[in-house]
Amino acid sequence: MAFVPKTWPRRLRSAEWYSGSTKDAIYHRGWLKNQGYPDDLFDGRPVIGILNTWSELTPCNGHLRELSEKVKAGIWEAGGFPLEVPVFSASENTFRPTAMMFRNLAAMSIEEQIRGQPMDGCVLMVGCDKTTPSLLMAAASVDLPSIVVTGGPMLNGWFQGERVGAGTHLWRFSEAVKAGEMSQDTFREAESAVTRSSGTCNTMGTASSMASMTEALGMALSGNAAIPAVDSRRRVMAQMSGRRIVQLVKDDLKPSDILTKDAFENAVRVNGAVGGSTNAVVHLLAIAGRIGVDFTLDDWDRCGRDVPTIVNLQPSGDYLMEEFYYAGGLPVVLRQMGEADLLHKDALTVSGADIWSEVKEARNWNEDVIRPFDQALTLQGGMAVLKGNLAPKGAVIKPSAASEHLMRHRGRAVVFEDIDDYKARIEDEALDVDETCILVLKNCGPKGYPGMAEVGNMGLPPKVLKKGITDMIRISDARMSGTAYGTVILHTSPEAAAGGPLAVVRSGDMIDVDVPARRLHLDISEAELADRLAQWQPSHEAPTSGYAWLHQAHVQGADTGADLDFLKGCRGSAVGKDSH
After folding, report:
1. How does residue 220 score in pLDDT terms, banded at 50, 70 and 90?
2. Of 16, 210, 259, 494, which has the highest C-beta tally within 10 A?
3. Would you say 75 and 81 are in contact if contact means Cβ atoms under 8 Å apart?
C-alpha cells in the first residue's frame, strides 16, 4: 500500500511544550529563548532534534559537529527549528570492555531523550559502528519521523606504495610481525598512514556496512553510505537531509512506514552483495525487534544464501571506500540487484519514493570495483548460518572473507576457555596445534565477555604463521571486526556463558564444519554431550550492580540480536505530564 502523507499544517507534538499562554508554555519558551531564539520560531513549525554522537573519544565521529551545522542549515531553509542534542556515543575504538556492551544502553538512553523532549522529528548523526544501530533502535522504538546522516568513511590509506585499509591491514601487519616478516618499527611507521583523515574505516567494515544497511533499509537519502567524510558532497548530503526531515514531519512519514519486512530483506541481500560485516546480523535483528518486524536469523540465510558479492572492497577484495564512491556507490549495487530480481523495488524510503525510483538510473563508473554479477568475487556472498549440535540456535560465517579450502573441514579442537586463556597460551611454542586444527574460544558472547567483544578473529599461533599459513578455522561466541577476514565462525548460540554446547567442547574433540551444508557438528555422542552439559558450571563472575548487572540479567542471545529482553516491541512515542 502506498504511503499517504498527512495534511499540513496541523498541530505537532512540540506544541505540547511551546504552544499557548499557559504557565507551562511560557516556562518552556522562556528558557529556550535565553539562547537568543526569537518569539516567532514558536509558531508551530517542526522542531527537529539533531541527535549527535560527536565525541572526541569517538574518533570516527570527530567531525560530526561540523557536519551538523550543514544539517541545521537545511532545516532552517525548509522552515524547521533545529535543536542539537548530544547523545551517548559508544566508540568501538575506546570503550571497554567493548562498545557492544553499551549499544543497548545507548539505544535506551537516546530513546528516552527523544520520548521525553519536544521533538517532532530527528536527524540521527552517526558514524562509528555502534552509533548507527543504537540510534536506529531508539528511533524505531519511539517512531517519530527520522533520517540518518552518516559521517562517511575516511580517505584511502597508503603505505609504501600499497593501498592499506583501516583495521584490515592492522590484522595483516600484526600477523606479519608475529611471523617475522615485518619489523615492529615498520609496523609503527604504518600507524599514521592507515588512518589519515576524519571518518570511519575505509574498508567495508561494520561502519560502512551499517551505512549501507541504513541506505538499503530506506532510512537515509540515496547515496549517503559511501561519500568520504572530507568530501564536500558529504556536507551537501547533510544539508539535503536537513531539508528532508522537515518534510518527513509534515508528511508524518515514520520509521514504521519504512522499516518493513521487505526493507530488511533488501538490507540482507545488500550485505551479501557488498561483502558486509557479520556485525550487521546482530544489529539488524535488534532493529527489527524494536520496530516489531518478524525477522530472524533464518531470514539472513534464506535471503543472503544466493547473493554474489560484487563489491571488490577490503576485507573481501582489493579496493577501499573512496573507490566505491567514485564507482557510483550503493545506488549502483541496488540497481544491479534490482535488475537481477534481488530487490523489493517498491520498498519505501525517506525520500518519499520507492527504492527503485531512486536507483534505476545509477551508472557504474568502474566495473572492477562494482562488478557485474557474472564476474562476482564470490558466488554465495551472503552470511551463512550454520546449525548443529554445537550451535543449536545458529552461528554465522562470512564466506566472502573465508578460505575456500576450509569451507568443508574436519579438525581437532584446540580450546581456549576465555580470552585471557587465549592470550596466555597462543604464542607458546609448546601449544599442541597445527594448521589442520580448529581454534575454539569460549565465554566471549553477550553475557560471557561481557558484551560480545570483537575477538573472534583470533590471531593464529606464531608456530603456524611461520610455516606460511595465513588462515585456520576459528569458532567462538564472540564477534569480529567488519574489517577482519578469515574462516571465522561467530555468534555461536547459545553462548558458552549461558550453558550452550560450546561451553563443553574439549581440546582433542573433533569438529565437522560444512558451510555449503550449513552444518556445525561436535563429533561426540548425544549421550556424551548431554552428560557434559549436565556437569557444566558457569566460570565467570556475574556483576551485582549497575548497568553491567542489568545487561547480564537481561541481554538476549546473538541469534535474536543481543538486545535487552524488555526493550523489544516497545514502539510508540508519548508526551508525559508537565511538572511545571
Report:
1. very high
2. 210
3. yes
